Amino acid sequence: MRVLVADDDAVFRRMAEALLSKWGYEVITCVDGAEALRILQGPEAPHLAVLDWVMPGLDGTQICREVRAQSGKPYTYILVLTAAKVEKENLIEGMDAGADDYLLKPYDAGELKARLQAGRRIVELQDQLIAARESLRTQATHDTLTGLWNRGAIIEFLHKEVERARRSSAPLSVAMADLDHFKQINDTRGHAVGDAVLRIAARRLMPCLRPYDSIGRYGGEEFLVVLPGCGEADAVATAERLRNSLGATPIETSAGPVPVTLSLGVASSPAGETGAGEDDLLRASDDALYQAKNGGRNRVAVAAKQDLPPRRAP
Question: Which domains, from first to last, does the chain contain?
Fold first, then answer.
């Protein structure tokens, strides 16, 4: 683990560096408070810091306040080194500013090692908690089979994009996509092969979209694609890319290659037309999808203009 040692006293700094290196830490050193703060606010800031209380530029208390004022960054465990003559009130001030612990100079090497081990456990525990939280967040918003957004998440994306389109009078399109004859794949080749087809299909579809587009598993073998800023022509072009990407080559599975095609229904709310909400776009794209299915599958159908609400008066 990386640790910052900030001390303007060359003797104490070199001693700390030697001890920490011996204990297996990757040590970064600096001689003043301003440089210490820059390092701790950097993109690869160490999670452990040993700071002298009094340094040129900024003292340990000021650094603690600045570091704790940051949000959205991993926790930094801060151990402050102080002279024995420092008053108790000053130590309390340092702890209130955000220091995790303090050690009196000259310090005992064993005590320094123990304090750092405690700090390391705290940092590692926080990393585990963050990883667990992110895992739960992913489980709550992503489909476990395909890795795409789940139904709730993709509908939430659509809701936000509808509100954004209304505020900016920008176009918005959605595409409802369905794997053709998927039930037949499950019935003849088994659900394990069907699951593999869904996973690989999702991987093929994602590269066809822009970074700010969204795709989610709407249900079963159905996918919903949200295309902000896309009018009808661009949405149809995107839908054709999705269709061609999936149907270009069979999907390789444990049961052999499986040819898969995609039918899509596109619904668009043009720029300046703020009448269509998420329910309108979902219904219209779903109707268009049925048209594509009834028209022979493996094709893109577009919702009729009368299927969407007219423009609202300002």
Answer: 2-139 (3.40.50.2300), 151-307 (3.30.70.270)
